[in-house]
Every structure is written in structure tokens, then in C-alpha cells.
Design brief:
single chain; 6 strands; 9 helices; disordered C terminus; flat; alpha+beta
């Protein structure tokens, strides 16, 4: 099951008393809110998404490979049963690179250097790199009854999932894997959801700073 199916696999039925406008984004979007780095869906599932930077295990020594495999196996024994590893594969976006190189060319006085920059744009920015693939790796899991959050409250569930995320970080760090810790985890998730829903548009239209606060003010917040 892919990252998109985690959120869109089930019908998005809201349990709140406020009904969305017909044919609006709110009517079909299954996400109710994002709280403390956790996605809350309309069917009251709490989902944690962690982005992981990969390592090429084949470049490590046999002893290091064995240690990583043993540590990862130990983590799998205590990991949430719903845990899934997902990979998002996209073609590389070279527009910013090409734009930056054109700026260099515009300010370059030497004709030979300008030609070299243009050649670089043709061969790399509009050639090889354009066909390159970009991979992002994610670990996803959701709240399970056996996790036993404090008072079974919304904030207790969020705190419990973040504890599970800290456990994952400790084990994966021992596996030479870095789990990203965004400064603003809610904004990170909002950006990720935006990229999933608007795969092409998100490449050219970026979300403005403070957009999470803007959407919260407009659409309200999830209440217990």
C-alpha cells in the first residue's frame, strides 16, 4: 500500500457535526487535521510519517552490514504492526538549476565562459539530469490500541506516536540511517500532502510561508 493509499484508501467520512460544501476539496479530502506532527484522518485514524535518508549498505564492510541487519531485525520485533516502508519516485526537477545557470550566464562577460554555461545547461540541466529519478523514503505507521495512549485522548495519542517515532530514530540511527526531524513538523506534513495531491502543480507553485496557520484559522482545528 502506497503513501497515498494510506490516506485515500478508505472513504473519507467525517464524524464532525459540520458538513463540508458539496463538491469542495473538504468533501473528498480524508485529512481532518495535522497535530504535533501526526495526520488525523476523517475516520479518526492517527498516522505518523517519518522521512528517512537511505544508506548504500553495499559500500559498508561485512561486519558493518551484519551489525545493521541485526539492529534492524531487533527494531522490527518492537515496531508497530501497521508499519510500512514507502518510496516516492519522481523525475528530477531541474528548473531551479537551469534558472540559476542562466543568471550566471547573464552576468558573465567572457563569451567563452557563457558558451560553456549554455553547454552545461543543454547537457546537464536539459539533458542528463532531466531524465534522472529522485527518491524519497518514508516509514509510516498509525496508532494501535495496544499502544495504550494516556487517557486515550487526542493529545495522548499524538504523544504516544511521537514516542514511537523517537524509538524508530534510535534504532535507525544505529543502522546508519538518518530520520529527518523538521523544525516545523506540521508544516512538513502539509507540504508533503500538498505534493502528493498536486504532483505536477507542486513543482511550480510552492506553498507560502505560514500556510499552516492560514488553513488552521480558516478551517478550524481538531477538537477532542
Amino acid at each position: 500500500m502506497g503513501l497515498k493509499e494510506w490516506l485515500f484508501g478508505a472513504p473519507a467520512k467525517s464524524k464532525s457535526g459540520t458538513e463540508p460544501f458539496p463538491n469542495s476539496i473538504q468533501a473528498w479530502l480524508p485529512v481532518k487535521n495535522i497535530i504535533g506532527g501526526v495526520v488525523v484522518t476523517k475516520d479518526d485514524r492517527f498516522i505518523k510519517i517519518l522521512e528517512v535518508l537511505p544508506v548504500n549498505i553495499r559500500l559498508l564492510s561485512p561486519a558493518e552490514q551484519s551489525a545493521i541487519i541485526e539492529t534492524y531485525a531487533a527494531y522490527l520485533k518492537i515496531a508497530p504492526t501497521s508499519m510500512s516502508i514507502e518510496v516516492r519516485t519522481q523525475t528530477a526537477d531541474t528548473s531551479e538549476y537551469v534558472a540559476r545557470m542562466r543568471q550566471y550566464a547573464a552576468g558573465e562577460e567572457n563569451g567563452n565562459c557563457r558558451e560553456m554555461i549554455e553547454d552545461n545547461i543543454r547537457e546537464i540541466g536539459e539533458g542528463i539530469a532531466r531524465d534522472a529519478l529522485w527518491h524519497r523514503f518514508f516509514i509510516i505507521f498509525e496508532y494501535e490500541p495496544q499502544m495504550k495512549a494516556a487517557q486515550n485522548s487526542v493529545h495522548g495519542i499524538v504523544e504516544r506516536l511521537n514516542e514511537e517515532a523517537d524509538t524508530a530514530r534510535r534504532y535507525l540511527d544505529a543502522c546508519e540511517l538518518e530520520v529527518l526531524e523538521p523544525r516545523f513538523s506540521d508544516n512538513f506534513l502539509l507540504q508533503l500532502l500538498y505534493e502528493i495531491i498536486n504532483k505536477r502543480t507542486s513543482r511550480r507553485v510552492k506553498l507560502p510561508e505560514g500556510v499552516f496557520d492560514m488553513t488552521t484559522a480558516i478551517h478550524g482545528v481538531y477538537e477532542e
